Amino acid sequence: MRYVVVVHGIGEQRKNETVLAVVNRFAEARRAGHAAAGLTLGLATGQTGKENVEGLCRAPAPPDDFRPWLEFKGIPVEPGPAPGRFLGEPDTSGENIRFVDLWWADMLRKDFGDVGQEPDVWTEGLLARLDQKAMGAGPDEAPPVWARVTVREIRDLALRIDTILRTKAQALRARIFNDFLGDVQIYGEYSHCRGLAVRRFHRLLARVEAAHALQFEMKHGRGPVEGEKPRYTVIAHSLGSVMALDALLYAHAREDLRTTPSPGGQGLPFPEYVSSADLAKTDAKVPVRDTSWVRRVDSLVTLGSPIDKYLVLWWQNYRYLNLPHLWMDAELREFRKAVRIRHYNYADEQDPVGHNLDVAATAPAVLEVFDRAEDVVFNRYKVPGVAHNEYWGDRELFSWILARAVDGKPGGTPPTWFDRGAYRWALLYSYRLLPAALLLLSYFALSYGFYTPSWHGTALAGVAIILIVRIGGPLLRLSVWWRQLARLKWCAPGCEHDRDRAAKRFRTEIAAIQMAAPAVMGAALVATMIDPPALPAPQRIWLLVALLALGIAFLPRVRRPGTDAWFLASALATVPLAFLLEPLVPGGHVAMNLFLLGVAATVVFTHLRGLIYAAKDELGVAKGGSLPKLDYPRYADASGVDIPPPPRKKMPKPRKPRT
After folding, report:
1. Do 355 and 274 reside in the same domain of the chain?
2. At what angle do helices 145-168 and 473-487 cross, to 10 degrees?
3. What share of the chain is helix, strand, coil (3-state, %, to 5)?
4. Is 371 helix (H, G, I), strand (E, B) or coil?
């Protein structure tokens, strides 16, 4: 019997909401891609009932009507095309794949009011720890450049957006900084949340085991033997993949360690995984004691996973991964030598959260439990950022997951890992649409400030330009940084030529605009001097301020070592090109508008190209290279990890000889 356990990531998911997409995609895959009837939340929860989660699993919940899985007609366990249509009809035969939704959003939100902080505070602490770790550390022991720069860039942009949202959009601000970024913080820094989440994972799987055994016994009059017990595939998204990895690894821990209360802090045992109510029970089926189900977990699928980011940013939480011999159950360690959990990791290049899992692949405990079956970063989705949630609608990807991770088919035709059209769209968003939006906004603000008849309008235009600089600048910088970092993610072989050709075309366009914009600006300025429009005092002052700002913006570029060659070429060619183009430019207000447009284009695209070069230099990776590999045992020194030793077995006292 095959069970698919679905674990959601950050967000405000409801029970069974995430599993709907998986059910629909698997139903389509069993019908060779033909659309299935859409399963709704009411049909799903109507089959399972609502689970009583009172107490957040600190103690087993009272009995309720919750059924721990979903089963529908038309998604058979056996591979092959399914007959008929998928209508979302419930089934209890056990001949179909059963789906289990692991919901844990309440745990991420419950403690935010007590331990959550503003993003500027907790990210400052995170950066401080990374900087301290980097001091005096060797190349293999220091945090990688991408980790510190990524946190810094996100923090800079978030703080500027936060300043604006505080005034008029408190609800949106709370959703971004408390609900989403808050989830990242709580799971990474508050170890009690981690213990509770892992406990819920283990408790739910134990309930599935018990319910399966009860149903089997009612049907056959006996309990299931080994071949009749559940087999599990875990599909986890985003932050849920980190929790799933924690839960599967912790299920391999010694029973005495898992059932020992923890006062808190990092390491083992997990705080709040057990409670006093658990320890008072003598039933061997208490959820935290029974993790026998982990032997039948065949595969783990992670989508858009930040596992490597958590191992790097919160390395102190995972140092025990380097010492599996101290905390793993001896029998399970021996069992895993022959049978490891197949791990399939998938991420789109435009997903800022997902990545390949090079760091996790070096952790000794991960190597003992998991077999790295497939780790693919692909190009299939168009919109950067939005790609993080596009996996749930990808029929081709889920057909591949069903065949590989669930059915266990080693061969087959893989999805199209590289979509040339999607990749061009991704470059268009990063290198065309965002710069073009900043260009138009800057031009409108400049022209409004220039042509407004009042000082109030001039002041308003000045405020608009300041906002564009304060928000648009970091947004463009973060976009370029992610774009350069994405280029270094592993990609399926065979697409390098198409990727390089598409990227080269965009670089050529940027260079052409960078060369042409100053020439147009200069020609318009010459035409304005020859045929000046009538300018009142505010407009003259505005023009002088614009020219002064332009000079201040570009002076550091001229003095900086290693100045961009294209910038120098455009600067040197501006004067002769301006006089050549001047006869083609009408004077008066037309020339003034062209001048303002040229100023905006020059600033935006020169800044864009400068950011690209700065990101390349900061990453320190040569063309055609990749990110340096990080060895987790060297990075996260485990010499100071304190793990309680196993209890000594009591030896029987020798009997005294009778005298």
Report:
1. yes
2. 150
3. 60, 10, 35
4. strand
Looking at the fold, whether 173 and 272 belong to one and the same domain comes out as: no
Specify if 640 maps to a domain. no
Q: The domain containing residue 514 runs over which residues?
A: 422-619
Q: In angstroms, rounded to a whole number, what is the distance separating the alpha carbons of residues 597 and 584? A: 16
CA nearest neighbour of 603 among 539, 544, 524, 546? 546
pLDDT at 237 over 60: yes
- pLDDT, one tens digit per residue, over 614-626 is 777 777 765 556 6
Contacts of residue 589, defined as CB under 8 A and 6 or more positions apart, other chains included, come to 533
The amino acid occupying position 517 is A
Q: Is residue 364 part of a domain?
A: yes
Residue range 122-164, pLDDT digits in tens: 888 988 999 898 887 887 788 888 888 888 877 776 776 766 6
> Among all chains, which residue has been given the structure tokens 């000045």?
462
Q: How far is CA 474 from CA 78, 91, 155, 158, 215, in A?
A: 52, 53, 10, 9, 57
Beta strands in 269-354 (DSSP E): 297-303, 341-348
For residue 633, tell me if it sits in a domain.
Answer: no
* C-alpha 405 chain-centroid distance: 21
CB 376 within 8 A of CB 417: yes
Please report, for residues 245, 292, 297, 447, 645, the alpha-carbon distance to residue 324 in angstroms, rounded to integers and kept in the order given: 15, 18, 19, 65, 13
- The answer to whether position 648 is within a domain reads no
